[in-house]
Amino acid sequence: MTLKTTLLATLALTTLFTAPAMAANPQKQPEIAPEALSTAEQPPSNYDAAAKSARSSLEIKNGNPVAVLDPGHGGSDPGAVGYSLQEKDITLDIALRTRAYIWANYPMWVYMTRETDVYKSLNERTSFANAQYADLFVSMHINSYSTSAASGLETYGYPGAADSISLATRIYDKLKPSFSVHRGVKTAEFYVLKYTNMTSMLGETGFISNGTDAGNLAKDTFRQQLAVQYAQGMHTYWWGY
């Protein structure tokens, strides 16, 4: 066999065994959820950067907490849409269930940025939470991607804020049993995390663009399960158990 023939054979074998490996590479999934960043709107007039900074470093926890639940989107803003579901409906249902569970089980007062299918701007949501002098802010969302490839759970805290990341972690740990794909606790400069004066987190409980996640989110029992887990995560963060 000539040297030329040997080289051609080697090249053919290399192509044969590397091409399938390249085709098998998983599709890249989104790293950050598509929520509004801190530059999306002007800050609310009652945002107190000094108070936010102090709470972020000290993780202040006194007495029984006041919490604000923030069901994402609403009214003219449906949020993500998929499999005949709208994010605004799912987040509102989970938030209402979470409030009911908390009121029935914990000495925690709960406000909501919306209780019906109405539109609230980011400024209105954060301004309302700040006006309640709340201790906790939990923003509830459903994720989405351009294909059905992405799925699972992720939560967010504000970058560098120990209290925010801790709350996001406690809630994430409680929500994990509901999902087979765990995308982690992440940080992002989302508007609602930056401009709330209290400890804040944002949850993305599944992808409405994924058939399995959407099928679960369509079930009352699954949404109730998520609501209980949100509440339990808040309880664990505040009371330590």
From TrEMBL:
<protein>
    <submittedName>
        <fullName>N-acetylmuramoyl-L-alanine amidase</fullName>
    </submittedName>
</protein>
<feature type="domain" description="MurNAc-LAA">
    <location>
        <begin position="126"/>
        <end position="235"/>
    </location>
</feature>
<keyword id="KW-0732">Signal</keyword>
<dbReference type="InterPro" id="IPR002508">
    <property type="entry name" value="MurNAc-LAA_cat"/>
</dbReference>
<dbReference type="Pfam" id="PF01520">
    <property type="entry name" value="Amidase_3"/>
</dbReference>
<keyword id="KW-0378">Hydrolase</keyword>
<feature type="signal peptide">
    <location>
        <begin position="1"/>
        <end position="23"/>
    </location>
</feature>
<dbReference type="InterPro" id="IPR050695">
    <property type="entry name" value="N-acetylmuramoyl_amidase_3"/>
</dbReference>
